[in-house]
Each structure stands twice: as C-alpha cells, then as structure tokens.
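Hey, resending since the last one bounced:
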Amino acid sequence: MNKAAKNNFKNKLLTVFSLLFVLLLSSCEEVVNLDLETGEAKIVIDAEILWNKGTDGSVQTIKISKMAPYYNTSTPKVSGAQVRVVNSEGTVFTFTETDPGSYVCSNFVPVLNMEYSLFVEAEGKSFTAVEKLIPTTPISKIEQRYMPDITGPDLLVLSIFYSDPADQENFYLTYFTTDFLKVPYYIISNDNFYNGNEIKDEFSDVDLKPGKTVKILHKGISKNFYNYMNLIFEASSANPFAASPANIRGNIINTSNSNDFALGYFRLCEGEKVDYLMK
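The structure tokens again:
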C-alpha cells in the first residue's frame, strides 16, 4: 500500500472513530427516567407554631399536602381540611384555609411551656399530636472572623453565642439563610456537654463575603423533635431537604389506624430572628 493510500485509510479510520465517540457522548447525555413504583400518597402536615421574640405570635400557619411521585415538579395540596389547636386550658384556635393547603389562625395565643394539641380532619382521616411550646435562649453576641484555608483564600466564619440555662435540659435548632444558598444551613444542638455554659454555633461558606446579609433564626425545640431531626439528618446525609430513604415517623398519629400516620411533626418553638451584615 502506498503512502497516500495509507494516509487515506488512516483518515477514514479516524473519521469513523470520531463519529463513534460523538455518538457515545450523545448517548451519555440522554436522560433516563426509571419506572419507579408509586406507593401510597401519605398526607404531610407541616405544623410549626413559631413565636418570634418581639411579636405577639397571633398569626400562625399550618400547611397540608400529600406525597408526590419522585419525578413530579409540584406537591399536591390538601384542601377542605378541618384544623384546630387546643391549649391545656381548653382554648380552641381554629385554622381557616386561605389558599389551597394553607390554613391560617390570626388569634393564636402562645404561652411558653404550655401544652397544645393539634387536631386535623383531612380526606376522611383524623390526626392528632401533642407538644409544649419550648422557650429559647436569646443570642448574646454575634462575631465574625477569618479562618485559614489551605485550599484557597481564608474563609469568613460567622458565630453566634448564647448562654445555656444550668437548671434544665435544652435543645436548639439554628439556621442561617442568605442569597447564595438554595436551602438554609441548619445546626441542631443540645447542652449535653455545655449545660450552664456558653454555646457557639458557626456558619461558613466560600461565598460568604463582606457585604452579604445572613438571616439567622435561633429556636428552642423539644427533645423529641431534636431526635426526629437527628434521624432526618442521618438519613439524608445532613441535608433535611434531600429525598429521605425512608418515611421517618413524627408525632402526628392517626386516631383510628396507627399505621396510617401523617408525615411531619407538630412542634411549638420560641424563636429569635437576627439579620447580620457581614463586614
């Protein structure tokens, strides 16, 4: 075979391999939707009573929806439910549907350490739960500092401090929200090793820069809710918004069929909100 023929053969061979390579890359980019089994669409009750310091806590919202198939881009809302919360003195607070699946009470009266019961009638099922309104320890100071980072520029670290009461067991949930985070950064903590001492929660990110505003919400939570959140963090690799490998059971029970429980957790928390501008 002469040199020209050899080169022509090599060019044709290279062209064939190039086409195969392009086809291979194209096939790798094809989206494959698996045919997943769809289980029972459980009712989800997002029932948080949050009393922020400096407010009267009178407006509260409870949201009710249903589980959706994995590939759904929207969550089915549950309308027509009957929702009420009753405190330990027998006072009834009625939640009225204002938007599909959203139930609002405008005259709620929060009392720290008081016990409240949730009652929900939805789609022919009755659900209930009981919790106390847990106080929080106020934030005593907020600081920022630079932390050396061997992989790049030094990182800005935001720290909040609060003094834990010595005469009780306490549990906390703090989260940080800012414009470059798709979901808030959460920290759950307890006073097992810090009882009666100062506790510090920290937040840092490569995109945390001077001029950025970080919204901080610091809440007191019950021991049971702390354990529930721990399970969610463990099951979802510390991301509470990720798809959990199992339906983690909360405290909302079905009054007639204990196996047909609702997802979610009825919790009542005192919270403190602070907006901090990074310097």
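Helices lie at 3-28, 223-235.

Sorry for the duplicate.
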